[in-house]
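Following the same procedure, sequence and fold were stored together, as reproduced here:

>
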Amino acid sequence: MTLKRHHKIIIGSFGSIVIIFIIVSSFFIYGIFVKQNINYNLLNQKITNLQTDTQSKLNELTGNLLQTEVELNSLGSQMGSLDKEIDLLKASAGEDFSGIIEDVIKSVVTIRTDISQGTGFIINSEGYIVTNYHIMENVRSAGIYTYDGEMHQVNLIGYNLNFDVALLKISGDYDSLNLADSDNIQIGEKVIAIGNPLGLQFSVTQGIVSNIHQIGPTGLESYIQTDAALNPGNSGGPLINKKGKVIGINNFKIKETEGMGFALESNYIKDTVNEISQQTLNQSLIK
């Protein structure tokens, strides 16, 4: 059957519409594809940038940790010569302390972190150590060196911000130091401070008790004033009397002055450590 003219027009128009629809749809689909492709490329670029940035930060952190490990190992090798230095320390401390340094120093430890260094001392044979909290604050890595030159991994058991005291733990059995009754401290009595000032491990300085029951950052009369030299690295170390007992933990000095160091009194150390250990370990470490 022959199509009439108007039928041909209708069919032609419909075909044109279909063709136009197909063309428009193709452009629309192509536009969506292009947009998705652009978004995909942008997303890939962001992921690549993020991976690069993350890897860079990981490399930096790894480098810092490796550098800290190298420094810790270096410090450990330096400590191997401590036996040779004992005689010099005993001689420099004088007759009052030459007989006790060799025993006391075995319970003093060096603390090295990725931020700074300091000192601590063992207060319990199971490896519990007292130091200043500011030495451990915000650190990412830390190691403790004992007198024998061994490096130990350390756990932070707890701390008291008010008195700047931290309780640490290393594995093993050790000789510990005993705390004196700080109520019996006498002004003028001789003392020694043991620490690691400016990286000079296990240095000993001698002085006297200049004053007692001094007001510290807490507002309490809880600090001993001493003229025994204290420098960066001495923080956390023990202040020792002639009986070889700890009368204080070396904490700070007045800047731009000489002979004005301060140590938290031993009775406050005892109460603070036992408070921390009761909260974390359900026991008192110091009797």
Q: What stands out?
A: Helices lie at 5-78, 82-93, 95-98, 101-104, 133-136, 266-281. The mean pLDDT is 79.
